[in-house]
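Researcher: Let's run the pair from yesterday's discussion. Sequence first, then tokens, for each.
Model: Starting with the first of the pair.
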Amino acid sequence: MNWQELQHASLDRLVGWAETQPWCRAMAECAQDAQWHAEGDVWTHTQLVLRQLEELEAWPTIGSHDRTVLKFTALFHDVAKPLTTRLDELTGRITSPKHAVKGEHVARAVLRELGCDVMTRETICRLVRYHGRPVFLTERDDPQHEVVRLSWMVNNRLLYWFALADSRGRDTDSMSRPEENLDLWQLVAEEVNCFDQPYPFVSDHARFTFLRATEPNLYYVPHEQFRCRVTLMAGLPGSGKDTWIQHHREEWPVVSLDDLRQEMEIDPTENQGAVAQAAQERCREWLRAGTSFVFNATNTMRQTRGRWLDLFASYDAHVEIIYLEPDFREILRQNRARTQRVPEGVIRRLADRCEPPTWWECHRLQYVAS
């Protein structure tokens, strides 16, 4: 089955399809801690959550797209437990540390292969990553800051609905995460006007400053006097970054890692330290001069991308990210047409590790899917 068929499939048909997949069989073989999941293995819990979605009081009012998002969030929210589950030899307890983080990557790979559109896929993946946050709201130093931050990653209403189904989709008498904790998530989000929308900061720079601050102030309005603008390109090799620059930033100088490799005669398989250092120096030249420019590299990993974004922000630049992701088959075709083509295996490995950018990282974000 493909994405078009699955998003319209009945729950029974969706479950039947999932049970033919290797990641689902792994869930069925993965035990869970009985204190939290007396119902048994991960797949048993997943099916209960899927059923609980349809039992939600709000379910009849939820639109078809949001229903699809919630069902696939349920399907994948614990998909990485087989990869992370371990037995604590001292306590005898079963734990699955960081299963939600790894689950985001598994979900993205499966949904990309199915042909799911980028925006829907990323909505599901972010819900998978943050699905456990509402139950821990009372443990946060500032609950308001938590719901505000998450509102720029997920829809808090969808997150709340899923958390209800997740909480109810288990069979245990020792629940210590009462639904009152989830209701608090809704209450706090409604109080600061971000239950159905991202928190309405007074400006993009106020949001950017708040989300990057170690001690954020929700009501601080930073002074806006940008020295220049930087457009950071992100996307797999062959996604069309050079073409986009030609059409939209033709007059701007470009700092390109590919161009620097050619100038320095350094192969992509060799150590890239000298290339990165040269790129930093060229970026600093434009930043010091207050000249707007484009930084062009794959930039598909959040950590790697963050180093460049930190550099630009330190010079008071307005930071924009353009993320390109056409159909994966088109990416491979365009790469084959490049003068400097990248081995297909390298592109597939990059795709598996890809972390598309979010509003947490920049002043302005644009996804280009074609």
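Model: Moving on to the second of the pair.
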Amino acid sequence: MTAFALDDPLDRGSGLPGPGRLLRSAADSVPPSGLVVLAIFSVQLGAGFAKELFAALPPSAVVFLRIAAGALIMGSLVRPRLKGLSWGDWAVGLGFGVTLAVMNLAFYEALSRLPMGIAVAVEFLGPLGVAVAASRRRIDLLWVGLAGAGVALLAPWGQSASVSWLGIGFAMVAGACWAGYILLSSAAGRRFPGTSGLSFAMIVSAVVVAPVGVASGGAELLRPELLLIGLGVGLLSSVIPYSLELQALRRMPKHVFGILMSLEPAVAALIGVLLLGEILHAQHWAAIICIVAASLGSTRRRRP
């Protein structure tokens, strides 16, 4: 849930200080496909650690820790410029931030009710829908049907106690917000220099999430160990993967980037098994494979 379809703003200046340029130089030595894979694992590791925090904090409080940490780090590296913004710039920036907040709140609520692989697979219907909606190919109807079959396999018709309708509903809301995030991030990339659009959106998102996060977390948010884990989740889930993806987008075609990102539900399921011990049924793996295959098909390079 990072820079899935974002126009690359690094073409107009990274806006990063000296350390940021050094990190970019180091990233240039890694193949772009490797950067995307590292970003995917970083995001899903962050989600896994966040889910472990649910034993001490409600999901909304964990979202607040994640977004606040990410906003603090991004804001210190890239200070968004507010002077001279047009009304259109403000609308895009605020909409981007609110969408980011709702997307994370809905996803973490889904994560608290579903295994990681299932939550990410359902949420992935958002970017899949954007890809299909932008296409005029008849074969894309096949990918829609394949994704629908995956959702049908995930639906708790009676025997799947590990899956809840409410969790699937939250994941679908997160997916819809992810679709909006893709469109708004592209607009922000055109209106804000460098990565300042993301920095602006994350600050707005932190402000939006703060009331519900602080109210639900209360004094537990001040525990040093939880703050430290929250900082790690913010780094793994936002700052590190976003930076890696932007570096990859500078050096690889977007359709290749999209194909690699299609592996994210499978990686989420793998992290869920290894980190959280979430053993999925055969039908759940079949559903994840259906959604990954639909995403791979929809991102195949189109003929000119």
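Researcher: Give me one sentence on the second I can quote.
Model: Confidence is low (pLDDT under 50) at residues 3-19.
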